[in-house]
Amino acid sequence: MKILVSLILAGYWLPALAVPAEQSETVSSSSSHFSAAEPIKYSDGNPAARWRLEALDAGPVLKHGAGPNQCDYLGARDAWVWEKDGTYFMHYDGAGPNGWLACLATSDNLTNWATRGAVLELGQTDDDDSASASYGATFFDGKTWHMFYMGTRHVSHAPNLIPVTPYMTMKAHSESPLGPWRKQRGVSPFRCEANTYYSDTASPGQIIKRNKEYLMFFSAATQREGHLLRTLAIARTKNLDGPWAVDPQPIVPLLEQIENSSLYFEPANHTWFLFSNHVGIENGNEFTDAIWVYWAKDLNHWNPDHKAVVLDGSNCVWSAKCIGLPSVVKVGRKLALFYDAPGDASTSHMKRDIGLAWLDLPLLSPPE
To answer: What is the pTM of this model?
Structure first.
């Protein structure tokens, strides 16, 4: 393993590190450990992580441009990955000729993906998803597939058509993970609210069922003195087709500058690990610079000091600065970590691809 890590750090990518599902049980029974790190000093003074949990990167597994009908010819990013009956499904944002739409890809080994095209279409002029219907996070209740997706009425100029806040959470459902997905116009889970910490963003995230209640760890953001401050918060419901109640405070402060959520529960130590992408700043330019992980025993209580860097330019083998939105899936004794990046030293929103990295299980949090 030390030889493999040395090769990775030297810039040599070994495709064998992208472990197919059927081989994952025989790879390594070691665990992933935290190590102390020198916190990055951001120019805006926002907090940084003092721990690292090193993921082993395997490079890109889904490159933009191959999707049908040019659905992702300008970029593929914001992946949401799940497994059902031995097949892996990925919703990702395809930047196409009409805007960013949730697209579908499928795989039986996590490294070779068949792109199937857009699964949502833009709404009508007055709809909250008239300019983008993207980031399709799914939840299966045992009978129905539910998709909570991000909608917006505002985008940048063509051809990039990058979504612009405010971001809303919208709803669709299906009888199959393959779709077709039917939008539920009458369902409004929750919306941006003026004068709150989610005045500019209230977009979907991971759903966890606890007893008879569903908890969604959604992305929240608000403008303060001309800057967009980002965090995660919990919305709650007992009916996936009904309204959600938003907690009065986020799970961590707005200065954390994080967005998007993917959770994993570690039974070895009864700990929740929440993966999120951090938004950093360099020379006044904001971009997604790293994937962070937070850990907690209780889903309702999170300590902002309990966080670590998982993937950034120092351990990603193909993108030196920019690392975007995480999605994690347990595969045998490994945790697969999907993310997006533009490659090299780019920090662009466009022409991103989907990458894959690995963590050994169990995940062991650092001492208190």
So the answer is: 0.91
